[in-house]
Structures are given as structure tokens and as C-alpha cells.
Design goal:
Elements lengths: L1 E4 L10 E4 L6 E7 L6 E7 L7 E7 L6 E6 L5 E5 L6 E7 L7 E7 L6 E7 L6 E7 L6 E7 L6 E10 L2 E10 L4 E3 L5 H5 L8 H15 L11
Antiparallel strand pairs: 1-2, 2-3, 3-4, 4-5, 5-6, 6-7, 7-8, 8-9, 9-10, 10-11, 11-12, 12-13, 13-14, 14-15
């Protein structure tokens, strides 16, 4: 692997260009802080096209550890790291056709280094469709939260429990009428009228009487008074 230096009289610490072995194609370029001389960024290039960026890695000026890595292979993904421990904190994935539209975010537990939470976005890249929570030690899923479309309101919560080597799933559904979670699925009718208050029992009784009179052919003007 051959190392070349880009000559630039304006730079105190010049960029370093690393070429592929026995090739004139660039493998990566190291950039340095002009005050401290510490590396701040390394840009890696595609193996077949050294004008196409494959990934970019950024470094903390105090610790020298990598704090951010942006990958452009297949789809854009951004990995963030703790500047002290160097452990991964978060990975943000973007749509393969639109590198500004988020598809998912993976959060990592600092003690075990495993995924602790996954946020899945809708196709707009802004609103969250689902959140999955994991036990960072066992990597088993413990909870899944679903959100209503075009809203931050929860539609359902599924809890997972391991018993006798089996995963037991219990789902609770958000009822917009009672504003509580229930084990009964919410119907489309409930979804469409989630801003309507429950009907009082006395009003239901009056309505039932009115309907009964209607079908018994006993409807009078006095019956219409509810």
C-alpha cells in the first residue's frame, strides 16, 4: 500500500492520500485538524471507482476515537459512537432511493453493546410506525409499541415474556373511547370515531325505546322527545 501526500501550501497539516496496492486508484484520504494535527476525518472510496465515496469516518478531537461513520454502500446509514468508550450508540438507516428519508433507528446498550431499541419509521421518513424494545443482555424482544397512522397516539402494545423456553405474547389495544388499554382489539368503527365521547346509559335507554316504538308502529311526536 503506497502513501502519498497532497501538496497544499495553505495547509499546515496536509491531507494524506492512501493508494491501493500496485494501483493508481485512491483507497482513502485522511484529513487533519490544522491546529492540533489530529485526524478529524477519513474518506474511503469505492473499490472500482475512486471518485465514488464508500464511507466517511469522523473522529473526536480530544480522545481520538471514532464518533461517527457514514456508509453509502447500497443505502445510507449513519453510525454514532461514544467518544470516550468508542462503543456504538445509535445507527440511523435511510431509504435506498432517498438518503434523507429515515427508515429505522437502532439504539445500543452501552453495557452489553447490543441493540436495546429499534424505531421503525413510515414511508414519510418522519413519523414512527413501531418501536421494538429488547433485553440488551439476552437480545430477546420484550415489548413492541405500534402507533396510529398520522398520529403520535399508541394503537397497541405487545409485551413478550419467556416461560419454559417459550415466548408468550400479550397484546393490549388502545381504546379511543375509554382512553385505556384493553385486550380486545379496537374496531374500525372505534378508530373512525376516536373523538366521540361514550353514550350515557340513560341516553342509550331512550334511544332503544325510540327504536322499539318505531318498529312497533307506535311512533308519535311525543316519542321523538329524548
Amino acid at each position: 500500500m503506497t502513501l502519498a501526500v497532497v501538496k497544499n501550501n495553505a495547509l499546515k497539516y496536509e491531507d494524506e492520500v492512501v493508494y491501493r496496492k500496485r494501483s493508481s486508484m485512491i483507497e482513502c484520504i485522511h484529513e487533519f485538524n490544522q491546529d492540533s494535527g489530529k485526524r478529524i476525518r477519513t474518506t474511503y472510496f469505492d473499490y472500482f471507482d475512486d471518485k465514488k465515496v464508500k464511507s466517511v469516518e469522523e473522529y473526536d478531537q480530544e480522545t481520538g476515537k471514532r464518533v461517527k461513520s457514514t456508509n453509502f454502500v447500497l443505502f445510507k446509514s449513519v453510525h454514532e459512537y461514544d467518544p470516550v468508550t468508542g462503543k456504538k450508540i445509535r445507527t440511523t438507516n435511510f431509504d435506498i432511493r432517498n438518503d434523507k428519508r429515515i427508515t429505522s433507528v437502532h439504539e445500543y446498550n452501552q453495557e452489553f453493546g447490543n441493540i436495546s431499541r429499534v424505531l421503525i419509521y413510515r414511508t414519510d421518513g418522519r413519523s414512527i410506525s413501531m418501536v421494538k424494545e429488547y433485553n440488551p443482555e439476552t437480545e430477546q424482544i420484550v415489548r413492541c409499541i405500534n402507533y396510529k397512522r398520522n398520529s403520535t397516539a399508541i394503537s397497541s402494545i405487545s409485551n413478550y415474556e419467556i416461560k419454559d423456553d417459550r415466548t408468550i405474547k400479550t397484546t393490549f389495544y388502545y381504546n379511543p373511547l375509554t382512553k385505556n388499554l384493553t385486550t380486545c382489539p379496537v374496531t374500525k368503527k372505534d378508530e373512525q370515531h376516536d373523538d366521540v365521547n361514550p353514550v350515557r346509559e340513560i341516553d342509550k335507554a331512550k334511544m332503544e325505546k325510540l327504536i322499539d316504538n318505531l318498529f312497533r308502529d307506535k311512533l308519535t311526536f311525543s316519542s321523538l322527545s329524548l
